């Protein structure tokens, strides 16, 4: 929210510069995004008066104007604005001036006619198009008649004022108003703000004779309305327009501008209805009904939800409560009777309505954070009186109330010792009491116990901790002493689980994968991909975006998004892993899902990029990734044999290049190639992935002592080539070799596979190297031969192999 420095000066005697004031607000209250002056960067823009004009000789829309800019001679300026007129005072950018966007204006010719500068519209000197009043949106701006020719235009447009842009946190909704900021600065500088309060001039007719209100207290705890008749719609006075556009609000007319002015001043959202467009005499605050629609003031049509709050007449909704009014009851040039709504709506309902309808406004922002419930009536009175003064309206007697309750100040008790203990200060009774009084709180003292009465304008204060915070910030955070904590210290250490999780990351990084961190929230479709177990989805009640609606049940989909991001930027070689949690629910009825630690990887392109090799032929394949997974599991020192069993149960995986992973018969994950159709949907190249249940791996027994001394005795190798059926797997062969290989069999290596011509149908040739070594003595050929013969016999008898 932008607040003009001069507006604050109306209520406080401020003796500090705007930038120092902004710094003080940031150090004591809320963050300040910027302190700026709209005229900064602009120069040589002055008041000019159009003395005469004539049509351009070579154009049907340009006018050649003679303009008095305070010099001895008139300046000739060519202007194409449709509303240019003589005897009007206008904004003139002289030659050599700088206007909006840092554009430099030079003396030039327009279709052969000299133009000494430029007659400017508001948006051309830096105003946002969103705040330019409609009457000036398509033409130049006319300055007031009392503007002095030749002087800078900035004071006449409020551009010489400083604007303090405060970024208000959700708990300080009171700071979303000029009065709220003034009260806070009054506390900081020990001043009492000179706030004015309205005195309403009413006429004899009672407002209750014109309108009645029905309001559900659960939806609108407070709902009040004033009626103003015989208003004359016209542009607002310049002082009001300046206040609005400096705050980023577009002036509309003298009725709508009053409601926006009160919003900025009091922080209380108001809405003005054209009473003559309301059907019947009853206005209701209720839930929307099924099938109802509403076109709001921004001309967007909304399908209403049955949980949306609306303001309705006898026939239809006329406003989306607390968010935006309806186009069917807007104030226009023919409006004569205005119904002013001032209310408090339930914050959570307003927030949900604004999210559902994707319609976030200044009003909804304030209702979501809360408003001063004790100031609802005063805001309505102030608006009604301003409409009387600015629009000539007659304010009918009384306020019509649909719902209300007795709003009482909050009373909080706290002791001086508690305050000093929490803050580490040594404040006195009088110091703390003075701070409470500076804040405008009522305070009584009984010994060292304070009984603090908090006004309704500070609805964020409820408990003693809130008072401690108030004392700290008004006293000054920079004055609070810095002390080191005292007490026994302990040596920090990781748990075994934490060590293993950290080690697992190091292992994958050493194997060439880079860590990725993906969102735990994804789409419903992606959450259900690559499932390692059956589970119900966990949906967010109020997702921020359509891409983050569901808690993930796999890690791979997030990694594929990362691969897609890289592929789209011509990064073809991607090797990523991610460790994180997935979320499972056994049934839809479960309130909260269970969390499970998983680790996953995705590799696309070349794992080791070698520019001398053909990238296509050097791309990752199943066996490379399988080796990475095996090495990873071996480094975790898990006891038990690792098995890879082919499977086609994952619809998102290639059915012929996917395997389940088992350790000692326990399922721990899967590995394989992403199905081509899924890869196409993600817009990625051929990619291989794996996902492991890290919780299961952590719980499995470990062989922590893996050290094995290097033998000083030589090893002996034997090669064997087998002719076996194609149905025989490498795992079956290895199992038989290890089963009968003897005590000295150290390793087995498959070095050749052949299934081409010159072999019988349905057969394949597998060739292995067996390495034998005795760690305590030199092996003899007889010992190795005996063990090798046993292996050969077993392969023949168990697998039907033919030794070649």
UniProtKB/TrEMBL annotation:
Its EC number is 6.1.1.20. Its main location: cytoplasm. It comes from the Bacteria. CDD domains: PheRS_beta_core, tRNA_bind_bactPheRS. It is found in: Cytoplasm. Binds 2 magnesium ions per tetramer. Belongs to the phenylalanyl-tRNA synthetase beta subunit family. Type 1 subfamily. PANTHER family: PHENYLALANINE--TRNA LIGASE BETA SUBUNIT, PHENYLALANYL-TRNA SYNTHETASE BETA CHAIN AND LEUCINE-RICH REPEAT-CONTAINING PROTEIN 47. This is Phenylalanine--tRNA ligase beta subunit. It comes from Secundilactobacillus hailunensis. The gene is pheT.
């Amino acid at each position: 929210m932008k607040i003009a420095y001069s507006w604050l000066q109306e209520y406080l005697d401020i003796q500090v510069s705007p930038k120092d004031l902004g710094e003080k607000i940031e150090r004591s209250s809320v963050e300040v995004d910027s302190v700026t002056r709209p005229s900064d960067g602009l120069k040589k823009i002055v008041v000019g008066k159009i003395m005469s004009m004539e049509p351009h000789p070579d154009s049907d829309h340009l006018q050649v104007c003679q303009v008095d800019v305070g010099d001895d001679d008139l300046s000739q300026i060519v202007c194409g604005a449709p509303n240019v007129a003589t005897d009007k005072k206008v904004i003139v950018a002289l030659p050599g001036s700088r206007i909006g966007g840092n554009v430099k204006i030079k003396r030039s010719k327009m279709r052969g006619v000299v133009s000494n500068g430029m007659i400017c519209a508001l948006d051309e000197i830096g105003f946002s198009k969103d705040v330019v009043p409609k009457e000036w949106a398509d033409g130049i701006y006319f300055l007031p008649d009392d503007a002095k020719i030749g002087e800078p235009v900035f004071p006449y447009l409020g551009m010489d004022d400083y604007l303090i842009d405060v970024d208000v946190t959700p708990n300080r909704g009171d700071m979303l108003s000029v009065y709220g900021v003034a009260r806070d600065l009054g506390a900081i500088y020990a001043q009492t703000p000179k706030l004015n309060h309205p005195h309403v001039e009413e006429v004899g007719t009672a407002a209750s004779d014109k309108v009645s209100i029905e309001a559900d207290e659960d939806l609108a705890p407070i709902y009040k309305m004033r009626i103003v008749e015989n208003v004359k719609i016209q542009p607002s006075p310049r002082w009001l327009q300046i206040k609005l556009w400096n705050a980023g609000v577009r002036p509309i007319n003298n009725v709508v501008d009053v409601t926006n002015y009160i919003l900025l001043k009091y922080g209380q959202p108001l809405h003005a209805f054209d009473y003559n467009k309301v059907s019947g005499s009853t206005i209701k605050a209720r839930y929307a009904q099924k099938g109802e629609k509403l076109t709001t003031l921004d001309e967007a049509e909304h399908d209403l939800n049955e949980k949306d709050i609306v303001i309705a007449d006898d026939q239809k909704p006329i406003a989306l409560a607390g968010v935006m009014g309806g186009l069917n009851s807007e104030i226009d040039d023919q409006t004569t009777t205005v119904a002013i709504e001032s209310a408090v709506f339930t914050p959570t309902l307003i927030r949900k309505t604004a999210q559902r309808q994707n319609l976030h406004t200044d009003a909804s922002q304030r209702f979501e954070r809360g408003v001063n419930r004790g100031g609802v009536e005063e805001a309505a009175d102030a608006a009604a009186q301003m409409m009387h003064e600015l629009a000539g309206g007659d304010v009918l007697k009384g306020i019509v109330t649909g719902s209300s309750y007795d709003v009482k100040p909050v009373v909080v008790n706290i002791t001086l010792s508690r305050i000093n203990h929490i803050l580490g200060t040594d404040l006195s009774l009088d110091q703390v009491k003075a701070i409470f009084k500076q804040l405008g709180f009522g305070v009584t003292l009984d010994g060292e116990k304070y009984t603090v009465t908090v006004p309704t304008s500070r609805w964020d204060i409820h408990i003693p901790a809130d008072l401690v915070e108030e004392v700290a910030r008004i006293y000054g955070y920079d004055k609070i002493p810095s002390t080191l904590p005292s007490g026994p210290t302990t040596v920090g250490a990781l748990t075994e689980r934490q060590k293993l999780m950290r080690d697992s990351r190091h292992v994958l990084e050493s194997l060439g994968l880079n860590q990725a961190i993906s969102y735990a929230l994804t789409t419903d479709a992606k959450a259900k991909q690559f499932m390692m177990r059956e589970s119900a989805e966990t949906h967010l009640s109020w997702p921020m975006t359509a891409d983050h609606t569901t808690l993930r049940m796999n890690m791979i989909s997030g990694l594929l998004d990362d691969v897609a991001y890289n592929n789209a930027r011509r990064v073809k070689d991607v090797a990523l892993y991610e460790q994180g949690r997935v979320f499972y629910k056994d049934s839809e009825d479960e309130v909260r899902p269970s969390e499970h630690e998983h680790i996953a990887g995705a590799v696309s392109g070349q794992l080791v990029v070698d520019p001398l090799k053909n990238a296509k032929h050097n791309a990752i394949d199943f066996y490379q990734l399988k080796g990475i997974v095996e090495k990873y599991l071996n480094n975790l020192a898990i006891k038990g044999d690792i098995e890879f069993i082919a499977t086609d149960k994952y619809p998102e995986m290639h059915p012929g290049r996917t395997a389940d992973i088992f350790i000692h018969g326990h399922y721990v994950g899967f590995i394989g190639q992403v199905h081509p159709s899924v890869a196409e949907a993600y817009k990625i190249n051929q990619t291989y992935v794996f996902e492991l249940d890290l919780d299961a791996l952590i719980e499995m027994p470990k062989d922590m002592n893996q050290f094995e001394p290097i033998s000083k005795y030589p090893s002996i190798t034997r090669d064997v080539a087998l002719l076996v059926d194609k149905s025989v797997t490498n795992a079956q062969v290895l199992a038989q070799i290890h089963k009968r290989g003897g005590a000295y069999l150290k390793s087995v290596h498959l070095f050749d596979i052949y299934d081409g011509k010159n072999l019988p149908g349905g057969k394949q040739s597998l060739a292995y190297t067996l390495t034998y070594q005795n760690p305590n003595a030199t092996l003899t050929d007889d010992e190795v031969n005996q063990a090798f013969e046993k292996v050969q016999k077993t392969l023949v008898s168990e697998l039907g192999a033919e030794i070649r």
